[in-house]
Amino acid sequence: MKTKDFFNVCVIRLILFVAGTHFFYSGMYAHDLVVGSSSSTISCNGKWEKEKPMTRSLPSTPTASIDGTTLIIENPSQDCDIIISIYDSESDTMYEQIIPASATGYITIPLNGYPSGTYLLNLRNSSGGYLSGFFNIN
């Protein structure tokens, strides 16, 4: 039940975030996860980095994509552990793993054997950052 409540909260946050982006957009709060070979993009709600003074630097937010039956997560900064969770449409946890910072540059997660459907990808870090987005497996 706790996972189902978490899933519902994520859905509500995503809806509120999408509505809010019509009024305000900041790269610190909205990130894209690229999903599928057709390069369809899902805008995810979340805040990955701590607020910093204005600096010029390359983005350090992870990105995710699907290549066939493999989920790929890339993290350009490799500065924190990443907790990766995948939930199905029934809010059941399909995958959960803590990846140490040194191994977060390029992460692959095989999705073969997952039934067709919509899934929630949730990325969290030890600083309280999070990104959430939905993807489909056909």
**Side-by-side strand order of the widest sheet:** 1-2-9-8-5-6
- H and E order: HEEEEEEEEE
The stretches of 5 or more residues where confidence is low (pLDDT under 50) are 15-42
Shape: globular
Give a brief outline of the structure.
With 138 residues, the chain is mostly beta strands. The protein has one helix and nine strands.
Describe, in plain words, how this protein is organized in 3D.
With 138 residues, the protein is mainly beta. The chain has 1 helix and 9 strands. It has a 6-stranded antiparallel sheet with strand order 1-2-9-8-5-6. It has a 3-stranded antiparallel sheet with strand order 3-4-7, with no helix packed on it. A hairpin with a 4-residue loop joins strand 1 and strand 2 (40-47). The longest helix has 20 residues, at 2-21. The chain is globular, with a radius of gyration of 15 Å.
What attributes characterize this protein structure?
138 residues, six-stranded antiparallel sheet, 1 helix, 43% strand
Strand-helix topology:
Layout: H1 2-21, E1 30-35, E2 40-47, E3 63-67, E4 70-74, E5 82-87, E6 93-99, E7 106-110, E8 117-125, E9 130-137
